[in-house]
Amino acid sequence: MENLGERISKQLSDLSDIEEKKIKIEFGIFNNKLNESYKQKIKAIENNFTSQADFYGKKEDEYNKEKNNILRKYTAEFQKIYDIRKEQFFNIINEIIEMQANQKIVFANINKVIEERDKYKEVNESDDLYYKKLEALTQKFDNYQAVINECEVKLLECTNCALEDFKGIVKYRNESIAIVKKTNFIFNLINKLMNIFTGKVKFQKEVVLKMNNELVNIEKNDNKLVNIISEQTLTLVAKIEEVRAEINNSFEAAIG
Known about the structure:
By secondary structure, the chain is mostly helical. It has one domain (4-255). Helices cover 89% and strands 0% of the residues.
């Protein structure tokens, strides 16, 4: 016959497998959403650059180096935000894992109390002590679950905030503001003739210089944002630790 230890061990093992799969799924969603957002936005920036280069009469081999340099800088900013949000995401995940580990201990203790009900009756000559301990343990388990639920909400917020951060990176630059070639034949002809003499200078001033200046501002904003996110993460983890201590204190008080 399977003993108590073996049964609890199996139950906890099954629970661990489920939790591990859930965490992998949650991170997969986080990763996929940010990757998809990045690909869309970096493509929009590339299209924006290319359309303006075409407008000023630049051939692809004339602007490829400048375009790649700008895309590299944008990619670095996306990566910077991704890294700090991923760090925040995993800090929350680690708190969930810790809370779930605490729940497993409580779960094992609940099973132990149930198995040893007769011993409690021998000591107390009634079920009072048994129910008191069982209720306190159940409440402790539920309290941990409440914190886990809040952490799950924070994971979703982390993903949504990261997507908003990505929007901030392209606030100066997106497909909707790309210069579109006019369909009027006369306009196109005049524009091409003018750009033979001034296109290179205008392209450097209106496209390359402007986008690089925008990137300077983006980098400054992102550096500030990284510090803000780091502070938010530290504050959140500290608050969770405080709540965990309160849960333990409440349990100790309940069982007297």
